[in-house]
Design a protein that fits this description.
This protein has helices at residues 2-9, 13-21, 25-32, 38-50, 67-86, 108-125, 139-152, 167-174, 199-215, 227-239, 257-265, 281-290, 292-302, and strands spanning 54-59, 93-97, 129-131, 157-161, 180-184, 219-223, 248-252, 270-276. By secondary structure, the chain is of the alpha/beta class. Helix 1 (2-9) runs antiparallel to helix 12 and helix 8 runs parallel beside helix 9. Bound molecules: dihydroflavine-adenine dinucleotide.
Length: 306
């Protein structure tokens, strides 16, 4: 209920203005976002690598409305990949891309062309691209573009959202050799017809999907902070004899950093999703919707009380 209310309020222009201008908003943003510049992203990628973690960098932005914006997003990814390579960080750091930031909402082919250029740059830098998953009305299109991108760049990864009723079937389709699939719960507001609404149903779906991915020949990326699901991930690796090099755990920047390091100490690969850039609003609101304590932290900041 609270989650739905926050996600709905997040779409209001008034709420956006309030959040953008509130005192101390910057402090809240800093907890979840690396900073605004390419240099900030590289700095955090370096810090993660030094701690034995890997990273995936996301240049913030979604629902791009113009060709200029889409091209600027593509160019930022190209600059980032170039600099990751120059800093010798491409081995430990990949990029995550939202197709809507590349123009998917108004020109699917444009988004595909931009994504293809980014995938080619990632391949030459020696790293990979994962396509983020957004609202359910884009799922088919995103999976179609994924297949086209994989024809030239087979390491291109996808995100599947366990809250969608269709996802178990998508997991079966994508559980093939070389296929990188990031499994998350899902962060958008979706109707009951397409998505499980209760937390328990979402968790059960996550486990069913995890079973498919961990027993298959692909490369699962277990993206969750949920202690029970992390434990089930560890358990399934043993049960299905999946070596540590053939899957990884993933968490968001600023969330459960001590758990990220614990998993590394246990010998697992852990990748941290690091957003950066000015367009942090939508991302921040989804993080606030996930956890009441994040909301309390944010409310104190907005009201000026730390
Ligand atoms: P959930 O939010 O239900 O939290 C479960 C439990 O985790 C909590 O009860 C608590 O125990 C623990 N926990 C969570 N936050 C904590 C905190 N701050 N401190 C301590 N404990 C905490 N979504 C999407 O729709 N499309 C996408 O492309 C992506 N991409 C993506 C990449 C990566 C790497 C991750 C980790 C996540 C995404 N997501 C996403 C977001 C995802 O769908 C989901 O909204 C969040 O990960 C939150 O879900 P959890 O699985 O963490 O569980």
């Amino acid at each position: 209920m609270l989650r739905s209310a926050i996600l709905a309020a997040a779409r209001s222009g008034r709420v956006e203005r309030l959040v953008q201008t509130a005192p101390y908003t910057r402090d809240v943003v800093r907890r979840f976002v690396a900073g605004t510049t390419t240099a900030d992203a590289l700095r955090v990628a370096g810090e993660l690598a030094a701690a034995g973690l890997t990273g995936t960098l996301d240049y913030l932005g979604e629902d791009t409305e113009t060709g200029e914006q889409a091209a600027a997003t593509r160019d930022e990814y190209l600059r980032l990949l170039d600099q990751l390579s120059a800093a010798d960080l491409a081995g430990a750091t990949e990029v995550s891309v939202k197709l809507s930031a590349l123009g998917q909402r108004f020109d699917e082919e444009l988004a595909y062309d931009h994504a293809k250029v980014i995938c080619a740059a990632a391949t030459s830098a020696g790293t990979t691209v994962t396509l983020d998953m957004e609202d359910s009305d884009t799922t088919d299109q995103t999976l179609d573009l994924l297949q086209r991108l994989r024809a030239d760049h087979p390491s291109t990864g996808a995100v599947l959202q366990a809250y969608l009723r269709r996802t178990e079937a998508d997991c079966r389709e994508l559980a093939v050799p070389g296929s990188r699939v990031r499994l998350c719960k899902g962060a958008y507001k979706e109707p009951e017809a397409v998505a499980f609404q209760g937390a328990v149903d979402v968790d059960k779906s996550y486990v069913r999907c995890l079973n498919i991915l961990m027993s298959g020949p692909g490369y699962p990326m277990i993206a969750t902070h949920d202690p029970r699901l992390v434990a089930i991930g560890e358990d399934r690796a043993k049960w299905f004899n999946k070596p540590n090099e053939e899957f990884e755990f993933q968490m968001l920047y600023g969330i459960r950093p001590e758990e990220q390091l614990r998993l590394v100490a246990e010998g697992y690969q852990v990748r941290v999703y690091v957003p950066y850039g000015d367009e942090w609003y939508g991302y921040l609101m989804r993080r606030l919707a996930e956890r009441p304590s994040n909301l309390a932290f944010f409310a104190r900041a907005v009201s000026g009380r730390k």
